[in-house]
Inverse folding.
């Protein structure tokens, strides 16, 4: 039997199970289910049928279709009946206000460029089928667009939904490659960048991993559903760099019309002549010198001496490194 | 970013297909007689797949499995008719992924929505629409995007957009380190990869342009109609950062301390050395951008190709150093 047809058979069996349990007026005994569904009738033993039925029940539950059990006969309480309650599976009639409908359309549109856009639009379609009129052309003042271009996204998302521990190669900030073993807890997009948060089995602590730093394939590690996300967990992405406090002020000469990055933070600006002005800016060690260096000959550091030295040595290093490239 | 390409999409699982069928049945019933092509495009699958799905539905039904019990499907005319599927004719509750994506989307919209309580109200209704088995602690996806209010221009742009007015922008062009003045008819304001942009018809460039909000130096609403001309078409946001064919190919060598640039800039490929250093290939529209980047990272990054750009960086650094030498003497 080819895998494709085995998969089609399973879809057919599950759909028939849903139809049988939804159409029945009263709970159906396991015996009846086995007897009346051809796929179950074909099971070679009681054990094989039990295994198949239990797995099918779990998978439907996972899909949001719970099969409930009730005692069929009060005298023999091991005789239980199974049913699917339409109230639990059918989308309830919910009326959305016009502004809520517009918000839903925008929420779905935010995912339009992501790999899981299908889920958002399927959700919208269901609401529309239940009578909610959704105009997807609604204009927003300002709208977010989420992208999932990191190759690891889909595998991580699947693991997250299945509570499946994973292992993957991860490149640290300094370039070193490490192999991590993690129980995924959440995916978080922080200012446009995707992070996996979860429990790091080796560090024995929760950690955040940037998806763009995953290398190669995400591999499964042990059984799905083998852990739980801590109750009340709020995914928090530790920022990679803390904004450092400024250490005093710096003075920098800038050509007119240049040095936007520095001018934005200027505390004062003094015009020197028709070509240059001098700005006073907060001095952030490690960042101000680089802002000055990036401007090349359009900026000259004046003070403090520490800044001047840093700018000069950075410029010299840039010159020497690039002079090594053969002409 | 590594040079690895996204893996090929794995084949659909039995339950994924079942999910689509349960989704498709109510839709087909409400869109009686819909062309197969339209169903295929609605569900993002091929027409062959739709036919295979119908063939499967056709053999499913309730116990007895005779003509009266089986789902009736016909599509020979190229139009789809579905009958005898009453038990699954109503849409199902939202699955976890459906609820999670819409919820996260609403949270991300948050304060950019006009009424501040809209997101909250809608979230409560979404929760009621979700499958009863959905455990909110599993499969969590959160979006934490800023609402752009830190940009002084945001309020002005939203106001102009809402009232259909043209705006005047002072805009900083980073690659040329130059301030420009322009009049723009706003088409949309979007957040892409964590960055806020306004897309609009620029009367100076006579074309559609994307402006980063953090580079708008000042913005004023003009008392002029701001309807973009009919030829103004929004760009496909997926293509915004796709390199143009005239872009320059630049190869950079970065030490392990500057290896983050491969992560930060869209690139064409990365080769890593054993010591954490790397070579990254970029496509750039304006070499000035690279010159500024390489200067900024002084010594940690070297231009490998083109050689002229390496020389230009070195020369710029030498010229800048001369100013200090003059001060010394």
């Amino acid at each position: 039997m080819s895998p494709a047809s085995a998969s089609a058979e399973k879809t057919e069996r599950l759909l028939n199970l849903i139809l049988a349990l939804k159409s029945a007026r009263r709970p159906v005994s396991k015996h009846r289910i086995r007897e009346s569904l051809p796929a179950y009738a074909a099971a070679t033993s009681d054990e094989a049928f039990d295994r198949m039925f239990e797995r099918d029940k779990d998978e439907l539950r996972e899909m949001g279709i719970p099969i409930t059990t009730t005692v069929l006969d009060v005298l023999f309480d091991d005789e239980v009946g199974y049913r699917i309650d339409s109230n639990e599976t059918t989308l309830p009639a919910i009326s959305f206000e016009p502004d809520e409908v517009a918000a839903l359309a925008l929420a779905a549109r935010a995912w339009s460029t992501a790999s899981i856009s299908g889920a958002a639009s399927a959700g919208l379609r269901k609401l529309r089928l239940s009578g909610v009129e959704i105009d997807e052309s609604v204009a927003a003042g300002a709208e977010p667009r989420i992208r999932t271009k990191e190759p690891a996204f889909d595998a991580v998302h699947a693991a997250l939904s299945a509570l499946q521990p994973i292992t993957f190669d991860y490149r640290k900030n300094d370039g070193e490659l490490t192999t991590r073993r993690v129980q995924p807890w959440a995916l978080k997009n922080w200012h446009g960048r995707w992070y996996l948060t979860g429990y790091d089995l080796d560090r024995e602590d929760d950690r955040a991993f940037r998806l763009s730093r995953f290398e190669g394939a995400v591999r499964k590690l042990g059984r799905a559903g083998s852990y739980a996300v801590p109750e009340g967990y709020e995914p928090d992405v530790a920022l990679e760099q803390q904004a450092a406090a400024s250490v005093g002020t710096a003075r920098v000469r800038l050509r007119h019309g240049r040095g936007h990055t520095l001018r934005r933070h200027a505390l004062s600006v003094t015009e020197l002549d028709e070509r240059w002005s001098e700005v006073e800016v907060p001095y952030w060690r490690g960042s101000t010198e680089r802002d000055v260096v990036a401007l090349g000959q359009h900026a000259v550091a004046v003070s403090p001496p520490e800044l001047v030295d840093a700018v000069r040595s950075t410029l010299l290093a840039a010159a020497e490194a690039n002079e090594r490239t053969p002409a | 970013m590594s040079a690895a390409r996204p893996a090929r999409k794995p084949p659909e699982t039995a339950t994924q297909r079942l999910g689509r069928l349960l989704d498709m049945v109510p839709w087909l019933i409400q869109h009686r007689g819909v062309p197969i092509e339209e169903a295929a495009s609605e569900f993002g699958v091929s027409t062959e797949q739709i036919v295979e799905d119908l063939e499967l539905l056709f053999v499913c039904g309730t116990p007895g499995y005779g003509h009266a019990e089986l789902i009736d499907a016909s599509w020979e005319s190229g139009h789809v008719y579905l009958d005898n599927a009453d038990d699954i004719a109503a849409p199902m509750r939202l699955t976890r992924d459906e609820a999670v994506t819409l919820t996260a989307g609403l949270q991300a919209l948050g304060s950019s929505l006009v009424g501040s309580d809209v997101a909250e109200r809608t979230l409560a209704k979404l929760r009621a629409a979700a499958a009863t088995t959905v455990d909110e602690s599993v499969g969590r996806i959160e979006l934490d995007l800023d609402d752009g209010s830190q940009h002084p221009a945001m309020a002005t742009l939203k106001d102009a957009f809402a009232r259909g007015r043209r705006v005047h922008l002072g805009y900083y062009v980073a690659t040329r380190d130059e301030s420009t003045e322009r009049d723009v008819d706003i088409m949309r304001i979007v957040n892409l990869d964590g960055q806020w942009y306004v897309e609009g018809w620029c009367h100076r460039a006579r074309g559609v342009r994307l402006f980063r909000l953090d580079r708008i130096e000042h913005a004023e609403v003009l008392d002029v109609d701001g309807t973009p001309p009919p030829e103004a078409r929004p760009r496909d946001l997926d293509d915004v950062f796709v390199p143009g064919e005239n872009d320059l190919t630049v190869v950079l060598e970065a030490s392990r301390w500057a290896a983050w640039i491969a992560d930060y800039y869209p690139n064409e490929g990365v080769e890593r050395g054993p010591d954490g250093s790397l070579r990254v290939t970029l496509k750039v529209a304006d070499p000035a951008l690279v010159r500024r980047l390489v200067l900024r990272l002084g010594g940690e990054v070297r231009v490998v190709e083109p050689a002229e750009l390496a020389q230009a960086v070195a020369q710029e650094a030498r010229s800048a150093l001369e100013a200090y030498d003059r001060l010394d003497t």
Remarks:
- The longest strand of chain B covers residues 178-192.
- Chain B touches chain A through 141 residues (CB under 8 Å).
- Residues 1-7 of chain B have pLDDT under 50 and may be disordered.
